[in-house]
Amino acid sequence: MTKRVPNTNFGEYKQSIWVEFTTLAAQTKAVNLGQGFPDTPCPSFVSDYLKEIADHPERIDYMQYTRGFGDPRLTLALSKLYSRTLGVNVNQNNDVLVTVGAYLALYYSFTAWLNKGDEVLVIEPTYDSYVPQISAAGGVPVPVILKLDKSNIKNGLSSSDFKLDMSALEEKVTPKTKMLVLTNPNNPIGKLYSRKELEEIAKFVEKHDLIVVSDEVYEWHIPHSTKKIKGEGMIRFASLPNMYDRTITIGSAGKAFSITGWKIGWTIAPEHLSLPIRMLHQNCTFNVATPLQVAIARGFEKELALFENYDKTGDEKLLKDSYLLNILPQELESRRDELAEILKKANLTPIIPEAGYFMLADYSNLDFQENGKKIFEIINEPKYGSVNGEDEALDYKFVRWLCIERNLATIPLSAFYSKEFKKDNEYTIRTCFFKSDSTLKKAENILLELKK
């Protein structure tokens, strides 16, 4: 066959960090602090709902195709939930689209709304799939960097020390700028934007008439201590004045109920933004797994009932049974604090996240030596370099060494930056703390070996 050229919008055809490091973790049977999934049981009420559904093979409404844009029971639950959290009337039929995971919700949003040459402001560090998806749609990703303010380093850094310079954002705007991607809470750093920060962004997008894709899949992952320190919790971008009209909100059941393998996500957007996305969806996957949608709908119905009873009575004891508002935040806070102490004991410097379930760790002060060589000499050996011979940031090499030689999987932070900013961020790794006690203990034993 004649040599054909694939779609060049994707740029370089190479495996993502998830393919490489997930494969490496499996090959080395590593303790996995790399991938963002809990290895603890999901809430039993969600799995019980799915069991009940599976016990009724005669139910056509469970076992066959459902409404293409989302099972009515789930879209109703989501419309009630987001009407509550956004403070607007979210239409079940026109504003809600259920997708195969948040990944596809993002892909639809970019593909449906970007034309060739449209520029998209991407606040970095950020999730690595945005740039290739934007490029595939014909768009041009334009990075804007969150800068780490280290003035408070003696007291310990947190994700709130990553600051967005609004003047830098302004400098990136051109007549071709069409969209801004906001990740809140941020993956990988765990930054939870304050109301003040979001209001500044809102003024900016209104000034330049931009569409906002607001990836809020970690919206429920807010430890109670964060709310006490900040005096506020999760502020959803579309809840700000005039912002619902220009925002595509991305959500995830996998993150909300700790069931990442179910791959159910959604978009919440007004009809004029949602319609092109829905038209794309109907000609792609068309339908999403019905039993999973129904089980998730029942999970949200359970939570909504608690919220509504609380509204009627004001009795805060009712919220203690809420997985989203109490059980999940408590568990996250406990495990976050545990991993932070482990990292400190191992001479790594954690940056404490306000939200999400990832924690950054600076390894630049690591004083490990082996056979007379210091750690930074060791990781520069060819066997820890790229298989393609690329000139990579140092954190890639450190992560490979840690996985191959110490059987601990993590993710390089520089993977979440555009190429020109990778080398500026090569002394930090991303870890996931939403792991079982046994996993965290194994990780601790490995990391403490690095002090010897």
TrEMBL record:
Its cofactor is pyridoxal 5'-phosphate. One of its GO terms (molecular function) is pyridoxal phosphate binding. It comes from Strongyloides stercoralis. GO terms for cellular component: mitochondrion. Belongs to the class-I pyridoxal-phosphate-dependent aminotransferase family. Coiled coil: none annotated. It comes from the Eukaryota. This is Aminotran_1_2 domain-containing protein. Transmembrane segments: none annotated. SUPFAM superfamilies: PLP-dependent transferases. Residues 29-433 form the Aminotransferase class I/classII large domain. Keywords: Aminotransferase, Pyridoxal phosphate, Transferase. It holds the Pfam family Aminotran_1_2. Pathway: Amino-acid degradation; L-kynurenine degradation; kynurenate from L-kynurenine: step 1/2. Gene3D superfamilies: Aspartate Aminotransferase, domain 1, Type I PLP-dependent aspartate aminotransferase-like (Major domain).
